[in-house]
Amino acid sequence: LHEILYHINKPCTGDVCCCPGDREDNLWITINDYKPPTTQLEWEQACFLDKCFHGYYKWPKIIKYPMNKRERYTKGNMPEHVAILYNRFMDKNFIYQLIQYMIIEDEGFEINFNIHRFRMFKGLFRNFGLDLLDHFMEQLNLLIHEKAKEKQEGCHRVAAEIVAGMIRGSKYWTLEMLEELWQKLIPFLNEVCANLSPETLSYWGACFKFGMEDLDPRRMHRLIEFIRTLINGETTVNTFLETSRWFLVLKLTNFEWRVPAIWCAINEHAKEMLDHPFKAVREHIAK
């Protein structure tokens, strides 16, 4: 529209001249040059816009956004009916039995990533915070090291649903809580991504997709950086592992235009890989 008006010698004013895409006035909501807050007050007052359409075409006259904090239940301050749920999930034996039931429940069926279980885990971590983290991390490590072949696929599916719930449920956690979460989650995800299989890859792709969905990329800078670095390692003779890395990197499309520096870095790396000896790898890069 800007070009049309220019060629017919008509003035271009106001919103009409607001070109969609990257502009000086919307770069602040991208991950470019983002410096994470160093204090809890800065974190709570940060303007996070979780929907990707904000600022791409134009800005609304008024932007409403919530403060980046949420009250959570504490052990000494929760209603009786919530305490029942809390106490059950603080029982390691109950968590183990529940997870085993989820694995057995899916046996014999072609089951995809279960969005309902993901939402349940998201609610648990949103409301109870770090209290459940260690119990679930213990179970997650058991799940990805399952030796019985017939159970491995189900174990990874449930593990992916739990991790996605952790990530989404931590949206309003404090800086200190987030630091503890990612210190434990990144080494775990490194091990997962180094040992993917054709049967489990789709579950971890769904984990990243749902874990990052409708979230400001600045909230997710730790996970974005982790995913970006998946393709930074040395190339291997394992074609599946190479293609898996690129498959997971594609999940960053959740953030669309709001991670331009990341896309530029990925593009530069992709250009260096265009002569990769394996066709499957080249095809995944081309996507």
UniProtKB/TrEMBL annotation:
One BP annotation, GO: proteasomal ubiquitin-independent protein catabolic process
Domain of life of the source: Eukaryota
Domain spans labelled Proteasome activator complex subunit 4-like HEAT repeat-like: 19-247
Gene Ontology MF terms: peptidase activator activity; proteasome binding
Signal sequence extent: none
Database matches in InterPro entries: HEAT_PSME4, PSME4
Annotated GO CC locations: cytosol; nucleus
PANTHER family attached to this UniProt entry: PROTEASOME ACTIVATOR COMPLEX SUBUNIT 4 (PTHR32170)
The protein, known as: Proteasome activator complex subunit 4-like HEAT repeat-like domain-containing protein
Biological source species: Rotaria magnacalcarata
